[in-house]
Amino acid sequence: MSKIVIDPITRIEGHLKIETVVEDGVVKEARSTGNLFRGLELILRGRDPRDAQIITQRICGVCPQSHGVAAALNLDSAFGISDKIPDNARIIRNLIQGAHVAQDHVLHFYHLAALDYVDVTDVARYEGKDSALNSVKDFISRGELGPFTPRYEGDYRLPPEVNRQAVAHYIEALEIRRLGHEMVSIFSGKIPHSVGIVPGGVTATPTVDMVTSFLWKLRRLQDFINNAYIPDVLAVASVYSDYLEIGVGCRNLLSYGAYDLEGNKADYAVRKRLFSQGVTSADLKPGKLDISKITESVKHSWYQDSSSGRHPSRGETKPEYGKEGAYSWVKAPRYDGKVYEVGPLARVAVTYANGDPVMKKLVDSSLAQLNAPPSALFSVMGRHLARALSAKFIADSMEKWLLELKPGEPTFVEYTIPEEGFGAGLTDASRGALGHWIEIKDRKIANYQCVVPTTWNASPRDDNGTPGPIEQAIIGTKIKDKDNPFEIVRIVRSFDPCLACAIH
Amino acid sequence: MVKELPIVWLQGAACTGCTISLLNSASPTIKNILIDQVIPGVHVNLRFHATVMAGAGELAIEELEDTAKEKKGEYVLIAEGAIPTATEAVYGAIGERDGKPVSMQTRLEELAGNAMAVLAVGTCAAFGGIPAAAPNPTGCKPVSQILKAKGIDKPLINIPGCPPHPDWIVGTIASILLYGLPKAEDLDDNLRPLAFYGKLIHENCPRRAYFDEGKFAKRPGDEGCLYELGCKGPITYADCPIRRWNNGTNWVIGAGAPCNGCTQPEFPELTSPFYEKLKDVDLPVIGAYWLPDKEKK
């Protein structure tokens, strides 16, 4: 029996430690520890409710936009205007979030995950004329290879041509994700931490030059997703085909849905969205989403036990570092008492399970190219594939939305902040189901709770002792070389964890 | 012979927004910065940055600790995020030593002690920012206070902003490479480079004429100055109006939203509520006689 401790897990957002116990080369036990608590929920108390939209974006600088959307939906609902947001504003919110999420997926595959599979040092042997690759070759020849080494050594399997193509795309992807941010900025001022989405709608007034500028940046983003991102994911998945079976996890998936296609229903759990709301499991049958079934456990988290098992609308955040049996700052959200994974895999699978024809074709044709069954979705490569398809599904939808904008028509509806009230805002962020809950008293924030995608995925054991999704995905994995535990970091990164989000 | 400038990027109580903003650098691009010679003859050697580096766990921590020893006095330490100090600094840890978590505070103290200079990137590192906002649940402090308490006397430059514009970060590094560490007269009282933080948003705002005319927006989307919608431009030092964000695409007020004062030491406490008009502020550099009647002093 031996221990493998990886602290920090790099190439994710934030501070995560993974600790495993390995017996006969197989992981018997896994613990996921979030290492930074800031207490943003406590900081929000007593403030002007409208400020939640600005402050909660600071939960995470990688995916601030989704917090902006969740906060605005939350405040819209608390202010009683969730069914009165003008179509222009609904669409602009979708475009802002869509551009942000699509570039975030590109960032994840190339800049966070790819170095687990792609060998940058091999470019030293490149003999061609590509200027980007030659600049990498020059960089390698100078001998200081940070941040590309040190690294785990051994399991880099891509053929030289595929590998070099991926390195070239790593560099191109830096520009593409910056371009995605420019798209966000058109309607939302700046990013990270943008300003355009507010309760009541958006601040920007669409104009024809914004529409055309967005359109042609979108075209370039789509081109990259179609001709680089998806082919690269398929190429990596076919070479590392054992990872279509590694990192299966809990096989319960939950999505809040995202991108409102209608604005006249107050209830976010039932309004028509591009990605469907719901749950699904190994059988990929659709299940309805019932928000009242969400609870957060803290028995194994550094919070007072008295706050365990509550619905987030009545949730509490009472830190207690060093509590016996606890090992993480991440709480443990559960749905109907069970462990659920969230993320692109969940929203793609739930949308697929609900029979969306476009999504069905995307998933089925990709699996056919890999010669893999639908069960292969529940894996390291399944998550990467779902993320790429999520990016495509969003990007391909944005052109239509963009052309539905009506310059000159309203983007904002007036409201009054109530003396007292409750709200809930639900969306699917880059990394999965994101919920914000608010209680207002005396026109101030009395309580604010966030249950964030990585809170689900990186959660520790719950009150029943059941490990969280990442922990479950690691347990049972065969580790080929304990000095270079590729399997563990590849599994963890397939979830695209964001720890600043998870704990906040 | 290409000179290597080692950089260690440490993340404390942060959201990684400053890092992502740096990735948005347009000219030079982030590829130019990390792979190419960002200034002819100099390569930025990013030895430790948890968000982008290949290695994990002990490999990564060894790289961090080796750099502090082997490159003593040569590397630039960039700190992102505030530093949690409450309850013996248990709220934030980076890696382990002898099986025990090492606090962010200890990491900062050790790394700053051996650095050539320290850049506090972002408002959290520079001034405390959001995690230090009331009730400051984790006792977050800015880098300057940690260094002072520990008697670490290293050149410190603050590059605030939530997040900072990539040009402010890259420009400061390039300035060190080209012209050496900034002199006292290159920085303001808050240790911000005057090159980027020398003027108020309000001084260069394209909506300034509305302010001077007394034409104020009443709700988002209106024409007019955003002062009454809570704009903190009159008390905020940064060059956003002329530099603009995301490769010059837009900026906060360009999207019809009020500036929330994110480059200021007062952010967020005294610049919020963000959508309420500034109160009790002696507005500098402003023709106060043009204020609406009720505002006149």
Write the SSE topology:
The complex is a heterodimer of chains A (504) and B (297).
Chain A: E1 2-6, E2 16-23, E3 26-34, H1 40-44, H2 52-57, H3 64-78, H4 87-113, H5 131-141, H6 160-188, E4 197-198, E5 201-202, H7 208-239, E6 253-260, E7 273-280, E8 294-297, E9 332-335, H8 344-353, H9 357-370, H10 380-404, E10 420-429, E11 432-441, E12 444-451, H11 453-457, H12 469-474, H13 486-494, H14 499-503
Antiparallel strand pairs in A: 1-2, 2-3, 4-5, 6-7, 8-9, 10-11, 11-12
Helix pairs in contact in A: 4-6, 4-7, 4-10, 6-7, 7-10, 8-9, 8-10, 9-10, 10-13
Chain B: E1 3-11, H1 17-23, H2 30-34, E2 42-49, H3 57-70, E3 76-80, E4 83-84, H4 86-89, E5 93-97, E6 100-103, H5 104-114, E7 117-121, H6 123-127, E8 140-141, H7 143-149, E9 156-159, H8 166-179, H9 194-197, H10 201-204, H11 208-213, H12 240-243
Parallel strand pairs in B: 1-2, 1-3, 3-7, 7-9
Antiparallel strand pairs in B: 4-8, 5-6
Helix pairs in contact in B: 1-8
State the main characteristics.
heterodimer, A: 504 residues, alpha+beta, Cytochrome-c3 Hydrogenase, chain B, 3-stranded antiparallel sheet, 14 helices, B: 297 residues, Rossmann fold, Cytochrome-c3 Hydrogenase, Chain A, domain 2, 5-stranded parallel sheet, two-stranded antiparallel ribbon, 9 strands
